[in-house]
Amino acid sequence: MSDFLQFSVTGITIGSIYAIVALGFVTIYSVTKVINMAQGEFVMLGGMIMFTFLGIGLNYWLSFLLTILAVMAIGWVMEKAIIQPTKGADPISLIILTIGAAIFIRGVASMIWGKGQVRVPAFTSNEPISIGPATITPQSIWVVLIMLFIVLLLYILIDRTMIGKAFQACSVNPMAARLMGISPARMSSFSFTLSAVLGAIAGLAIAPIMFPAYDTGLMLGIKGFSAAILGGLGSAPGAVLGGLIIGLLESFGAGYISSGLKDAVAFTAILVILLIRPSGILGERNVGKGGL
Amino acid sequence: MKLKGVQQTNWIGVGIFVLIVLIFPFVVTQSFLLNHATFTGIYVIVSLGLGLLMGYAGQISLGQAAFYGVGAYATAIMTTTYGLSPWIGLIFSIAIAALLAYIMGYTMARLSGYYLAMATLAFGIIVHSVLVEWRSVTLGASGFYGIPSINIFGYTITQGIPYYYFVWAFAIIGIIICLNIVHSRVGRALRSIHDSEIASSAMGVETGKYKTQIFVLSAIFAGVAGWLFAHMSYSISPSSFTLDASIIFLAMVVLGGSSSVWGAVLGTVLITMIQVTVHTLGEQFTFITSEFEHVVYGLILVLVIIFMPRGLFPTISSWLNNKMSQRSSETQEKKAS
To answer: Per-residue confidence at B337, pLDDT binned at 50, 70, 90?
Structure first.
């Protein structure tokens, strides 16, 4: 029983990170129909840039803010540099395009920070708290809280503000949105910037637990993509649900079966779920060409 | 009779290509370049299958390295663990890759687009994990070493020029098979699936059957390539069959242009050339480190997609066609005047 609790805690922590990454995928996908394979690199950059700011002696929360701004700028530049010029390319080319960007960012990161892991201190003290038979590090609680905060924030932003309405309009019908005076190009730019912010926050939250290195973005990106697909591409609640499911599967797989097979367990389960629901758990029933 | 819209195989093009392949070892004598050329042949076989899958059936696979790995491991187990002939290994490489693809294709027939991409990605990661973890059969992360060479009519195919020709013979057979499929009824059916699955099934094309068949065929191609790879490299380990490898295969097809068989070939040659060039430069200039290689590689991928979204081959061939038609219209104008 204590094992079960411990695995659940680990699963929910890592699952929350996957959920944030998946929300980044969904944010970009719903407006631009692009799957941004560089989403995981935003997470990596969040941790790495934080490390650099702390290294030059800046205050913790100032560094936190500056890191978000820096990654946000990178997201904005990326959209301007590679997505704007390729309007109308077919989705498979766009996947390769963002994979190319991811390889590029990863290469630059390994040139700047080397290949080792970096350490970033936790938000608050790192004394584990025991709750019943399980122990939780305060950072894990922060991760879950941040995930919930982001969900709330996105809900308010998308559902309760004018820019959110414009965002939704673009995702439903870009042509009609354009006729109403909304610029899909600006919304595309906005979605990348927003999604970079989400990635940076995920990176900042997980850095004290995971010790980021130049290549952590790859697997985080894949898990986030899996979560977005599992939940049903384009569905924000689905992304959160998918992230938590993958986190838990992985944690139980590592705990009860073997840590080497944790990815195999998680991905086998994803395959089985997709067999039963070919458009994800909360996806629309009729997906046509599956987003392509 | 020549029907409009029916494409035919350009045998002159095939002939020129065969000639280039034949002459290459006489022109380029450095052994490491020949080695890379041999690997290129192996990758061409994988990307041909993937190109058919993507460009003609409109399916995407992010797990092609899994079939490639299964092909390599099947023959390694048969020849090294059980001491059988590599030719029996080939049968197993093809059979196991095809069987897995059939199961995948059959069960995943309801998936499409990004959901299919996800399924193939998951499949690739599962196969890689199994290769690492099933230590009693696959020997874990260190993999096999001492895989025997291939014998044909009592003649051992050694590394270097013999293996180069051996691999490219398979690659050229693969190209011819693909060209024949593409220019047949099946090819037209596949293209119709690529454009609209609903419309083609309404016209009586059995879309599910064709999709599964082409998936199996692409896996067989990858399996054969894996077989060639295992017997060429003497040792294999799971690190050659990761997600990165799948992505490189995908990049080869997209760079070259998935709407053409030659696109896959061109893309493969090009990516290998980029890798070799950056690597060789890295040996000469110390500031070009292995990290820098990735930066350049990523940059080239991005630039090609931005400037040639349809891939290199279609862009180049339409540019050439335009030039030719311009010239012929110019001469006609001169005659008229």
So the answer is: low
Q: A287: pLDDT confidence band, cut at 50, 70 and 90?
A: very low
Residue B263 placed within a domain: no
**Best residue in B115, B123, B313 for a mutation probing chain A (most A CBs within 10 Å):** B115
Q: B126 and B240 in contact (C-beta within 8 Å)?
A: no
Instruction: Give mean pLDDT, residues A158-171.
Output: 84
CB contact under 8 A, A263 and B125: yes
Map out the domains of chain A with their CATH numbers. 2-123+132-276 (1.10.3470)
Q: What is the pLDDT of residue A291?
A: 52
Number of domains in chain B: 1
- For chain A positions 20-59, those within 8 Å of chain B (CB to CB) are 35
In a domain, B30, yes or no: yes
CB contact under 8 A, A292 and B112: yes
Within B57-206, residue ranges assigned H as helices are: 64-76, 86-107, 113-133, 135-138, 161-182, 185-195, 197-202
| B contacts of A84 (beta carbons < 8 Å) | none
Residue B48 lies in a domain: yes
Min Cα–Cα distance to chain A from B49, Å: 16
- For residue B282, is pLDDT > 70? yes
Helix (H), strand (E) at residue B278: helix B261-284
Q: Do B130 and A106 touch (CB under 8 A)?
A: no
Q: Does B113 touch chain A (CB under 8 A)?
A: yes
pLDDT digits (tens, 9 = 90+) for B316-336: 878 888 877 777 777 766 666
> Which range marks the domain in which residue B77 is found?
11-243
Nearest to A215 by CA among B69, B125, B244: B244
Which DSSP helix (H) or strand (E) runs through B14?
Answer: helix B11-27
Q: Find the largest Cα–Cα distance for chain B.
A: 81
B276 near A CB under 8 A:
no
> Rounded distance, CA A245 to CA A227, Å?
8
Give the pLDDT band (50/70/90) at residue B2. Answer: very low
- The reply to whether A90 touches chain B by the CB within 8 Å rule is yes
Q: Does A223 touch chain B (CB under 8 A)?
A: no
- Give the model's confidence band at B145: pLDDT under 50 very low, under 70 low, under 90 confident, else very high: confident
| pLDDT tens, position by position, A97-138 | 888 899 899 888 988 888 888 888 877 777 777 777 778 888
**Out of A104, A229, A260, closest to residue B298 by CB:** A104
The three-class DSSP label of residue B315 is helix
Residue B65 lies in a domain: yes
